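Entry for zinc ion complex. Fields follow.
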Amino acid sequence: MRQWDGIVEASALTINDDEHDPEGSTIAFERAQVQAMLRRARVDLEDLDRAAQRILTGEYQVCERCGGPISTDRLTARPATRICITCANKVTRSRARERP
Ligand SMILES: [Zn+2]
């Protein structure tokens, strides 16, 4: 959170003069980056929480989509994943199709 405070402080000091202040756009950009980072961290935390729940219920290594096993290699690489590699590939492929 120290990074966030620093940016908030910095932008408070430069007073909303984005047009004339060459630093203005940099601060706006940094702020957007930190916000994106925060958002990602929250999603990661939720995913890990869910993973912890799945360990407790014994569903951790069970694919949410097909009910098949999730390989240990995959779980080592992506500890919060809820689907097996086969389903993940299907998702990636169908997402690719949705794009123009
Ligand atoms: Zn699956």
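NOTE: The chain has two domains: 1-58, 61-100.
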